[in-house]
Amino acid sequence: MPSFQPVRGMRDLIGQEAQAFTYIVTKARKTANLYGFREVITPHVESLDLLSAKSGEEIRQRMFIFKDLGDRQVALRPEFTASIARLVTSNLKNEPKPLRLFSSGTVYRYDEPQRGRYREFWQSNFELIGSDKPEADAEIVLLTNFLMTNLGLKYYAFKIGSIGVIRGILNADGIDEKTQNNVLQLMDKKDLDSALKLVDSEKCRTTLKGLINIKGENWQETIEKMKSYLEYYDEAKIAVENLHLTLNLITESTNIKLTLEPAFARGLEYYTGMIFEVYIPQLDIALGGGGRYDRLIETFGGEPTPAVGCAHGIDRVALALQIQGTTFELTTEKRVVVIPITDAVRTQAFKIAQSLRLSGVAVEFEVMGRKMVKALEDADKRKIGFAVIVGERELKEDAVVLKDLVNRKQKQVTLKNLVEEIKN
Length: 424
Ligand code: AMP
Fold this sequence. Notes:
Oligomer: single chain
Structural class: alpha+beta
Bound molecules: adenosine monophosphate
């Protein structure tokens, strides 16, 4: 038989790594709760039409696409936003705005596997739908900041920009949307020369070049310089004013490290306003990112609905925690193993295990039929806190032996007091 391996770009998560993922998702869910986001769970498989409606050419080419047995063209979701847009234009259509929706789980992209880049990876995803205000933009950045701090990340920083400003300039010069998307994609890849070549108008090119070359001491200086280039661009001017308000809200309400980069663009085509990414100094790939996408819901057949959202890459956050040496405690629960000394007391031991679980004690029953010494050795190795040893002699007195495997002490305890003894 061949020895089977996971499919290229997919991983098994075991031990510490699986725990890290659970830890991060739990923190993300807690953040969602604290910021008023309710959880929705959508399918991993969606129709290809839905997923390719507005993800952008980049992601379209990297989707896992197949036909189901009913001859439907479907694909594994490459992100959550399309599914959320589907929900907002169907089941949640008549719900009052704003909608705050949280999801987490795996997404799939045919990326070239490398450190921090996989074909199946996890995201936590937040969407705030129905507001075009800077407050909504600020909330999305702030909740990301809250999550990163709360996870115990020590050093990280935000990069912020505005697709709204860039599109504002391109719109003023009548550049069509497809070309705009190409310009933005090249800017995302830092190929600024090729991006500028797609722009015909000299005036527009000069403005963009000016913007790209801005070097500010801090974001306040950068934003003033941005404004100085946009005097004749009404739409871009509004976008930069919004960005200014957003940055004020963010920096005045929390301690945050951020840089404003006027030439910053992101791969997904649907962004229309503020965009951001979060990084740690030790990795040159983003831990998360997001932005404003005011026209997406319309594309899916809904009413014009402004929206802003973000996704955090859980695989990369786990990597960042590991790189920065952040430790975490997942459960503080005491674990117990229940061992019957003889077959004659097996049923009673089983009952004791069940009643401990009903009282909230985590129990592993000795299912290998090993002798007590072997079973205890194994429990020790796996750092289990207590052993409950069930013997005929003690049972006659409605008692068992409770062995503290950490402090190496043991005593006889009545069944009535067992839970209390373990919990204390
Ligand atoms: P996006 O949906 O492209 O905005 O990505 C959001 C986040 O998902 C990124 O900031 C990464 O942390 C994570 N991410 C994107 N692609 C991958 C990948 N191939 N492997 C692991 N994480 C990824």
